[in-house]
Amino acid sequence: MENKKEFAGGVVVAVSRNPEHTFSKPKRESIHLMAGLGVEGDTHLGKTVQHRSRVAIDPTQPNLRQVHLIHSELHTELQSSGFQVSAGQMGENITTQGIDLLALPTGTRLHLGEHAVVEVTGLRNPCLQLDRFQPGLMSAVLGRDEHGNLIRKAGIMGIVLIGGAVRPHDPIRIELPPEPYQPLERV
């Protein structure tokens, strides 16, 4: 591929979906990604925004949050601080391992399993639902860098470019966008 940087990434640890608007999503044996829509059978499926807070502002916004990914390394970090968290409990659809999701530039394409491709649109903006799930969790997924800038650690969001099945143990291949890279912003 000309002018595209591709490399092996990590692996899918777990997949989750929920047809209801609840915070956590039950783990599944597989999920099916649908191009331009999101996760089949998930409450956030749609071309336009499905998150309640965003629908209240403007229901015609494009859905840049079709798929939520969290790195399992965050779960490990939170567990070492005394939180009881595991795959799907923070609302993610795909739990990964071996990829620094937060360091990916906007527009990165994640090739999941045999066919599916998700384009990274930005950072998940942590909300108070985290504290309702476990007190103090929202603060635990926020930090500051050496310059005092806010770091959001609650995962990334993406849109489905190519649909397909995604299962635990599927490989993840990373395709970086053309330079100059744009850092992730909250979406």
Overview of this protein structure:
The chain has one domain (about 5-175): PK beta-barrel domain-like (M1 Pyruvate Kinase, Domain 3). Helix content is about 15%, strand content about 35%. It has 4 helices and 13 strands. The strands form 3 sheets. It has a 7-stranded mixed β-barrel with strand order 1-6-5-11-8-7-13. The protein has a 3-stranded antiparallel sheet with strand order 4-3-12, with no helix packed on it. The protein has a two-stranded antiparallel ribbon with strand order 9-10. A hairpin with a 3-residue loop joins strand 3 (about 30-35) and strand 4. The longest helix has 9 residues, at about 70-80. About 35% of the residues are buried.
Structural class: mainly beta
CATH superfamily, by name, is PK beta-barrel domain-like
Separation of termini?
29 Å
Mean pLDDT: 94
Flag low-confidence runs: none
Q: Give the second-level CATH assignment, the architecture.
A: Beta Barrel
The radius of gyration over CA amounts to: 16 Å
Instruction: Please work out how many helical segments DSSP would assign.
Output: 4
Largest sheet: 7 strands, mixed, barrel
InterPro entries: MoCF_Sase_C (IPR005302), MOSC_domain (IPR052716), Pyrv_Knase-like_insert_dom_sf (IPR011037)
Domain MOSC: 25-175
GO molecular function: catalytic activity; molybdenum ion binding; pyridoxal phosphate binding
Pfam families: MOSC (PF03473)
